[in-house]
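INFO worker-7 received task bundle
INFO bundle size: 2
INFO processing item 0
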Amino acid sequence: MTAQTQIDQKKEAFRLFEEGRYQESLQICTGLPAADRDAAVEVLVATNLYYTGKPGDAEVCFRDLLQKMPESSYVHSYLGKILEERGDEGAIVEYAAAVHLDPTNQ
């Protein structure tokens, strides 16, 4: 796979996500070689998992991402959403972290 092909596939995955075509976006992301999955693609995988009704898998991905990106308001906020949906009070901590990191993330 050429570098340009990989860039094109990443752009397509993001375009599909923006259109709400989460499963198709997820398929492209997971089809990329692991070495070519940058942080943005890993976040996209986790977010696609969330929107395709796989909160458990999404949680695992977001928790892994927190190890790599502890300063990501986006990651904290999505983890908060997942925890809130299952009634886990840890959601409050995640939402607070998200707002602390980015006060505009309400």
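INFO item 0 finished
INFO processing item 1
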Amino acid sequence: ASTALELAKLVNLKISGVWQREQQEEVPLYQEEVKKLLQCTNLTSLNMDHCFDLQAGCFLPFNSNRFPFLRDLFLESCHLEAEDLEAIVHGCPNLVQLNLKGNSAIIASGFIHLSRLNQLEVLNLTCNAKVGDAALMALADLPVLRTLHFGPTKGVTNVGFSHFIQHPYSTLTDLVIALS
């Protein structure tokens, strides 16, 4: 997989992880591979779902590298932290679809950064218990968000949820709520 990252013209990349670490047979993706990934600035789609062994802060280099063509980013269950999310928002300003399902290490303030993604249409925040009212209120300002996957969370109250669904400029057409 590491050699594939040396393809400068690569536009679609999927790096598969596994559900259980015990079954993992491949070498985990670490900092060196992410550094090589930063050379693939033509990417339009990146799927790194279930890459459990990513190190905290591995996406911080996205602060200095830009991915202007990246539209779809799938990072389900990758153990991201708030700083990683902030770097991704900074480096990938044109995201249309973002899957952050199951990244329980991201604290509430990290989700607020998502409100800067003005082209974001589809967002999956399922199984992120630390999403709070402030984050949901900030996400209400996303100008073209049409699909939100959300829940379960203890940090969102009726105040935050009401603000989100009653926002005067809401473009939301699909809301998927996971209750458990």
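INFO item 1 finished
INFO post-check item 1: The helical segments are 31-37, 82-91, 108-112, 133-139, 158-165.
INFO post-check item 1: Strands lie at 12-14, 45-47, 72-74, 97-99, 122-124, 147-150, 174-177.
INFO worker-7 idle
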